[in-house]
Amino acid sequence: MASSDSSPNTTTIPIFISANSLHSILTHNSLIQHFQSSLPKVSPTIHTPIRQSFEVSPSSSLLLMPSWSSSPSFPYMGVKLVTYFPQNSTLNLPGIHGSYVLFSSSTGQTLASMDGTVLTLYRTSCVSGLASKFLARSDSKVLVMIGAGALAPHLIKAHLAARPSLQRVIIWNRTMKKARDLVEDFSKSDEYKGVCFDSNENLEEIVKMGDIVSCATNSQVALVRGEKLKVGAHLDLVGSFKHSMRECDDEALRRGRVFVDNEGAFVEAGELVGAFKRGVIKKEDIVGNLVELIDGTKTGRKDDKEITVFKSVGSGIVDALAAQMVYENLQKLA
Question: Would you identify the CATH topology of the domain 15-119+317-333?
Fold first, then answer.
């Protein structure tokens, strides 16, 4: 893993990396590959406290996600600052905004600041895409996307990159116009000419069709009913990061082999916290995490009939890896 850190006697001029620059540097396929090759190597050396969440108002939050490396092979530390204002939808504004600052872990110098909102969209979706490489059926044909917010197109692209067998994407959203608009955007893209995109307002009906069901909402009521999941389905849960949030019911967890991105999900994810309290499942029932899937410590999908569930809440490790990839690619171009 290349180091772009400056020597201790060199003054580093921090750079700002805009959203447009991030889009030009990152692809979902390349970031999925970077996570797959790097996560097992760097995870033991990166310290990532559970994110700090502060309630700004009853509906709004400020989140802090720091991380730092203790290894010279990954000479970085960073912090992401995120604001969560779900009521922004009434103002036609994104509900999540963020900034990421990357530092040298050997000198403490600021190396770069970048658009944390776009960085989060890429890293979150690519974590889900990577998980689907291990947990979704290799012959998956239908992706059901629940939610049509800012994260939805990234999740769609990440799953398509991870599972090129996908032939159809069905989008559902509470406001169906957003789903139809997203369908129109994808249908215009030359990149996905071989994929059929459509929307459907009958949520229960399309859940039954999904080989992969991906959820990115701030719902506080279960949207996916486990009894509706087809045999062999993979359920990808991305939205919840508070105890009050919930995207699937207990039956989905009961039917599936459940994996998490990291152990932060045990204390943050509303689906899991609620299921633990109700005695539906125990922490010991969680099969494994993303690093264990990658390094083979835990077996992913065992056969074509089992249901798999992946719950992600995000972590400073994947933030740091995504920021590292962006920064080092820019350094090569300098």
Answer: ornithine cyclodeaminase, domain 1 (3.30.1780)
- DSSP code for 166: -
Q: In the prediction, which pLDDT does 6 show?
A: 42
Residue 190 DSSP class: G
**Would you state the structure tokens that stand for residue 7, as one six-digit string?**
């020597």
Nearest in space to 263 (alpha carbons), one of 320, 322, 218, 313: 313
Q: Is the pTM of this model over 0.85?
A: yes
d(CA 91, CA 93) in angstroms, rounded, equals 5
Report yes or no: 99 and 29 within 8 Å, Cβ to Cβ. Answer: no
List the CATH code of the domain at 121-315. 3.40.50.720
> Mean pLDDT in runs of 10 for the chain (334 residues)?
45 90 96 97 92 90 93 95 90 89 96 96 97 98 96 98 98 96 94 94 97 95 96 96 90 97 91 94 96 96 97 94 96 82
Which residues, 6+ apart, have CB-to-CB distance to 17 below 8 Å?
A: 112, 113, 114, 115, 326, 327, 330
CA distance 230 to 209: 7
Q: At what angle do helices 116-135 and 316-333 cross, to 10 degrees?
A: 110
Q: Is 197 helix (H, G, I), strand (E, B) or coil?
A: strand
Q: Return d(Cα 255, Cα 25) in angstroms, integer.
A: 39
Rg (CA), the chain: 19
Which segments of 90-235 does DSSP mark as H helices, in order?
116-135, 152-162, 176-187, 203-207
The one-letter amino acid code at 312 reads S
- Res 10: pLDDT: 62
Tokens at 81, concatenated? 């600052």
Residues of CATH 3.30.1780.10 domain(s) within the chain?
Answer: 15-119+317-333
Write out the residue limits of the CATH 3.40.50.720 domain(s) in the chain.
121-315
- Tokens read off for 13: 């001029």
